[in-house]
Amino acid sequence: MGEFVGVDPENLKELTKRLEHLHDLLARQGPAIHQKMQKWGSELSFASLSRLIAAALDDVRDMDARTTRAYELAREQGWSVMTRAPGVLGPVFTRPPVVRLDWEATGWSGDQGRRDAEALTAALAAKDPEAARAALSTLPEHLERHLADKDYQAAFWAGAGPLAVQAARTLYNRTGPALFSAESVGILRALGASLAAASRMRVGTGKESRPLLSTAARDAMTRGSDPWSAGMLAKYGPDGRSWDPRLLADLTRTMLDARAAGKTIWPPARGEAETDTGATRHQRLMAEFDAVGAVLRRAAENGVAARHVLGDPATGLRYARMLVSDSWHTPGYDPGRFLSSYVHPGGALPPVGRVDLSTPVGAFLKAAVSAERGTSADAEESAWSVVHIVQATADFARLHPQTVLPNQVRQALIYVAGRHLPDFAQSVNHDFASGALQQGNKPSNPWVAINKLDELEGFFMQALQKPEEFGVFKGLMASRVSTAVAATIQDPSDRNYLREMGGLFGLIQRVENTHHFEKELRADEEAARDQVLLATASGGFGALSFSNPFGPGTMAEIMTALATPALNDTLDTGHALKALKADMDASRRQVFQVEVPVVQGLLDAGAVHPPPDAPWVRGGRVIPDAALVDWISLHADTRYAGKTLTDWITDAQTAMRMQQ
What does DSSP say about strands 617-618 and 202-203: parallel, antiparallel, or unpaired? Predict the structure, then answer.
């Protein structure tokens, strides 16, 4: 054993606070002091400052553990913080006695973690919310202080794992308007932050490296019998980027499986609702504390976790089918129970009070397909996610031809199509097996998603429902003409990206024809198409630099440029339209002519070399004016990259299917 010393717990507590304040001051001001001293040319070395700050934090943790043990020893001797004194009404405060403390043995942060785990286990085992909150009042402070402490984290989660995951169930506040009290929220937030930090830690080095979290602790989170309570740790825990992607992926699968199996994923009911107002309030509580939505949101924030789930070739399609569904809402309630004097002639009334839950689903679908283009494992999972989302949507369209998916899900599908536009264009002429592949089976080429034609058709049948949605997507395809021209020239595989884009345009037109939009609605489509075309064609989106034209990066650049920009909220078509309308009534008509994007593409590919004083080129971008018209007329029969300018224009017109 170590050295035993006599200590006053109160004085030890004060010393701990002072050490903590010293560490906080060093951590906050240290970088600024270092920066200013460097600016003033100080010769003092601050190399050891970071080590001193870390050492100060270790001292705080050790002293906190000793303080906790000192109070425990005082209580073992019969001391109580409040006692009765002769001649005094009511209890009074008493100082703890001096105790003999093993300074070395109780200075370990792992010992503090073990004691906190024991306190948590005892408090939650009682299943009394009030008693648990009181017993755990100091836990959040301890957990926050030890977030980066491996010894503490390992000891705490080894002892508290299974019960800690069920904390929300025990702390659930059964009275009052709030589901959890402020104290309960603080405890859940601290537990979530601690679990997230521990999930990313590893112990050992090299081949001996392994996750810090024990298998039992991970299983409690991902295979436990209380998925709702586990979901609350994700809800109140930190941003998804602070979690281990594998743990979040496993938790996501668990939640989706639990939902499909009809398990409890909602907060516990507070008895039978007596009025429709009470029933509606419970629907809102179900939406606010939806465990599945909470986990999907964290996995979407992480990104990699979402791709782990949907990008698995073996199981990704199953989970994509669970997500691409019209069931993302609370169950609602039967209004007939509150209409005792009224009998509906048609029988039972349909459920009312449903709350839409599709927002985190849409975010998850977007995250699953958003890896950077390339040859990495993450890019492969992203491509497989696209394949599975398309297949799941096509299945839904086939099984539910009259049902429209929730708006947030559809917007995510449109995002998928915009981000993977070249994959979809390549897939139009493909009617074999669907899957993720690398072009030509070359490991230097990026991963792409290939789907059969009938799957793409079913996908777009659900994704695009409104005329303006068709217009936006057509505008995006049309604006890629310049990139498709450049890509056709520069791609060493001799692919014709213009023809692929034309095939996709034909598919979109065929899907749109099945909707039978009225003539007035077609005007909405054309307006949306024109706005997107103006915003993207005039903004230079998707340009190709080809710094290494025939190197391994060429295909990745082509695939990225053809899909830029993805259809999302950052594309503000309105501002671009207003800016150009002021003085471009005549040139606006020229912008929509196919000659401009064709020349732009030839320029991007280095096939066209305009004169240095050409007024129709500014900063590498083609500006439509009279001089450009003259140049096109003079060079109509000039050959660029193996074809005449007229041939390029004809191919582009076919691809765009522009309505003259």
Answer: unpaired
Residue 129 lies in a domain: no
Q: Is the peptide bond before 565 cis (omega within 30 degrees of 0)?
A: yes
pTM of the model: 0.79
Q: Which of 105, 122, 152 is the last residue of a domain?
A: 105
Residue 558 within any structural domain of the chain: yes
- Could you give the CA distance from residue 135 to residue 638 in angstroms, rounded to a whole number? 84
- The answer to the question of residue 206 being in a domain is no
Q: Which two tokens stand for residue 476?
A: 């995006």
Domain limits for position 19: 4-80+96-105
How far is residue 616 CA from its own chain's centroid?
43
- For CA atoms 188, 192, 198, 199, the dihedral sign is positive
Asked if residue 396 is part of any domain, the answer here is: no
Going by their DSSP bridges, the two strands 639-640 and 643-644 should be labelled as: antiparallel
Mean pLDDT split into 10-residue runs, the chain, 660 residues: 73 84 78 74 69 74 78 81 56 77 69 85 80 83 87 89 83 75 91 94 84 86 87 95 96 95 84 80 90 97 97 97 96 75 56 90 97 92 97 96 94 93 86 84 88 94 90 81 78 77 84 79 72 61 54 64 60 45 41 72 86 86 82 88 86 58
User: How many domains, the chain?
Assistant: 2
Taken in order 264, 267, 271, 277, is the CA torsion positive or negative? negative
